[in-house]
């Protein structure tokens, strides 16, 4: 069953129950109010006649009361307290006699309702007690045929039936369009998710509302965009890996074919073997970095922290890389507060620093300075690595931490690298609960800033 039909049925049943309950409650209260109004009107007319009789109860007054009621839809019967009839507006029937002959209990001054059952009885009735100027007592009985009440209720039932049918019609029409309006975006979302499952990520779901449906539409649109980006990133990744592997493999195959020639002298053979060895090392390095990324993505690596004296740690890093910096005539400086300690995985975080310093070394010219500053600011440890290298173009900065992204699009073999170092750096920093940012200006240099919380 379609969701539009389900929603329509749910709306219909719920609204039908509410409307039926409301109509029944309203009908019952209108009928009750109408009957109560008729009884109070009867009682008021009886009390009015009583007031007249207490002033004057002569035959002309009695006749006038009877004559007046004979012209209305009510009837009056005036009796003495012993039941003897003094005046009637019409000939009385057995139903009236039966009511008159009922024993009466004490009658309050505002009168008494004798019969209120309009469904079963022929009349509804009230009685009022009067005492004339001579001290004689009697009763004023007022009657009204229940046929009039039943006719009113019959008309009321017709109006309620017509109103119910109209409400039912408009309810069905409203539910139809409402269910369509509600399910239309859901149907579009279903089609969109079906397209996503088939690999089509070019879905478009305009967000037309700020409610839950709008949020769901926005989430599906975001998912489609993310999947499209991931697919593009995967394709680029595979293309880049294919390119990175093809080049050294081509060198290895080509130079191995040359090296197999029997006419080749020993010096040339060794030269070609050196090239083959270099390219093999390049492939090995690429595979190591790929394995490192795969391990980080699957969260199968572990960060084992220990309390580290930062100055000693950076001094050991300095000793490892300083020969390479001196060889290229780049001055490497380290400034660190002696009082700083931080929980770190020495191996993993050392890998972060070596990657960043290796980049500074590759992209900086001779006679420049690379500076490492370690400071504590507002409870956080800030590590700045600043070089005076060629810098990073502004358009490339947002992407440099993506895997296989290289600022140098030519992929020069002289600079080395596969574009995965900074991706590994970012994930290792985040594994330590920190974050890394970069500022750079072409021709002036680059600053990488690592922020770690002091635990």
Walk me through this protein's architecture:
By secondary structure, the chain is α+β, with helices and mostly antiparallel strands. The protein folds into 3 domains: 3-153, Beta-Lactamase (2-Layer Sandwich), CATH 3.30.450; 212-297, Signal transduction histidine kinase, dimerisation/phosphotransfer (DHp) domain (Helix Hairpins), CATH 1.10.287.130; 306-453, Heat Shock Protein 90 (2-Layer Sandwich), CATH 3.30.565. It is 55% helix and 18% strand. It has 9 helices and 12 strands. The chain has helices at 3-55, 59-70, 94-100, 146-197, 212-259, 266-297, 310-327, 346-362, 421-431, and strands spanning 74-80, 85-88, 112-115, 123-131, 137-145, 306-309, 331-336, 341-344, 369-377, 380-387, 435-441, 445-453. The strands form 3 sheets. Strands 2-1-5-4-3 form a 5-stranded antiparallel β-sheet, with helices on both faces. A 5-stranded mixed β-sheet has the order 7-9-10-12-11, covered by helices on one side. Strands 6-8 form a two-stranded antiparallel ribbon. Strand 11 (435-441) and strand 12 form a beta hairpin. It is rod-shaped.
What is the topological layout?
Elements: H1 3-55, H2 59-70, E1 74-80, E2 85-88, H3 94-100, E3 112-115, E4 123-131, E5 137-145, H4 146-197, H5 212-259, H6 266-297, E6 306-309, H7 310-327, E7 331-336, E8 341-344, H8 346-362, E9 369-377, E10 380-387, H9 421-431, E11 435-441, E12 445-453
Parallel strand pairs: 7-9
Antiparallel strand pairs: 1-2, 1-5, 3-4, 4-5, 6-8, 9-10, 10-12, 11-12
Helix pairs in contact: 1-4, 4-5, 5-6, 6-9, 7-8, 8-9
């Amino acid at each position: 069953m379609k969701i539009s039909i389900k929603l329509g049925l749910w709306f219909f049943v719920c609204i039908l129950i509410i409307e039926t309950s409301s109509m029944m409650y309203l009908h019952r209260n209108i009928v009750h109010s109408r009957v109560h109004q008729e009884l109070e009107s009867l009682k008021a007319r009886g009390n009015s006649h009583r007031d007249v009789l207490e002033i004057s109860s002569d035959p002309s007054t009695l006749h006038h009361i009877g004559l007046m009621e004979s012209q209305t839809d009510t009837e009056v019967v005036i009796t003495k307290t012993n039941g003897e009839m003094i005046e009637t507006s019409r000939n009385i029937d057995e139903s009236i006699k039966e009511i008159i002959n009922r024993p009466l209990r004490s009658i309050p001054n505002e009168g008494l309702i004798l019969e209120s059952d309009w469904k079963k009885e022929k009349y509804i009735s009230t009685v009022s007690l009067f005492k004339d100027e001579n001290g004689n007592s009697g009763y004023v009985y007022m009657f009204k045929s229940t046929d009039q009440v039943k006719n009113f209720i019959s008309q009321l039932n017709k109006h309620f039936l017509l109103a119910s049918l109209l409400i039912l019609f408009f309810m069905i029409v409203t539910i139809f369009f409402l269910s369509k309006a509600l399910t239309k975006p859901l149907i579009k979302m279903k089609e969109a998710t079906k397209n996503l499952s088939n690999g089509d990520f070019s879905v478009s779901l305009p967000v037309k509302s700020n409610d839950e449906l709008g949020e769901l539409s926005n989430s599906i649109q975001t998912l489609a965009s993310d999947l499209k980006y991931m697919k593009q990133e995967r394709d680029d990744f595979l293309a880049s890996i294919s390119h990175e592997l093809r080049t050294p493999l081509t060198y290895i195959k080509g130079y191995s074919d040359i090296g197999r020639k029997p006419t080749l002298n020993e010096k040339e053979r060794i030269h070609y073997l050196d090239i083959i060895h270099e390219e093999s090392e390049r492939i090995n390095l690429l595979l190591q970095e790929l394995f490192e990324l795969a391990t980080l993505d699957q969260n199968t690596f572990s960060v084992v922290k220990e309390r580290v004296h930062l100055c000693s740690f950076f001094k050991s890093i300095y000793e490892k890389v300083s020969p390479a910096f001196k060889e290229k005539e780049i001055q490497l400086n380290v400034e660190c507060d002696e009082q700083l300690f931080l929980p770190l995985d020495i191996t993993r975080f050392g890998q972060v620093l070596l990657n960043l310093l290796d980049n500074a070394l590759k992209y900086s010219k001779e006679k420049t300075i690379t500076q490492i500053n370690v400071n504590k600011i507002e409870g956080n440890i800030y590590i700045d690595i600043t070089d005076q290298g060629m810098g990073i173009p502004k358009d490339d900065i947002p992407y440099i931490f993506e895997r296989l992204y290289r600022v140098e699009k030519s992929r020069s073999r002289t600079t080395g690298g596969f574009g995965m170092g900074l991706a590994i750096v970012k994930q290792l920093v985040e594994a330590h609960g920190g974050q890394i940012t970069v500022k750079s200006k072409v021709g002036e240099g680059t600053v990488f800033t690592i922020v770690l919380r002091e635990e």
